[in-house]
Amino acid sequence: MTRVVLLNGLPGVGKSTLARRWAAEHPGTLVCDIDLLRTWVGGWRTSFVEVGAAVRPAAQGLIAGYLAAGDVVLPQLIADPGELDAFAEVARGAGASFQHVVLRDPSARTGRAAGERFRRRSGDDPWHDEVRRLVAEAGGDALLGDYVRRLSALVEDRPGTLVVDSVEGDEGTTYAALVAALA
User: Model's pTM, two decimal places?
Assistant: First the structure.
């Protein structure tokens, strides 16, 4: 049976990095990165949020279509229970399983601590600068603190959710914990 693995978590916690590594070590796995899909839409920088809302159904269609060939890993912050359920239903509708993994930085239990890691994040993904701007405009650390609370509530409300500690600067340990959790 194929599966969808949702790597959920705050911005900068390593979702995309771990998704790429997972796919590299599990040939045939599709990385369905919604943030990357956004960049395929003209004008995405000026309407990042709107484009994200538009590409999510496209991502669901891509996932549903690909599951006949292999697994899918989905690196995406999803804090809304209804949206989480929609992705789970796509997997089940295609005859696949759905595994929700929340990546958490054990030292970032507050918005401020999460914000510090987020601001240190590096990388050349084209959407990083836009996400930094949007987070700052939407409240910065207060917004990230709200996401910490919302993700914690999802973990509490969904007993099948796996939680993996994402250790900043130690991709190897974090990846090993992810592999162990999904085994």
Answer: 0.88
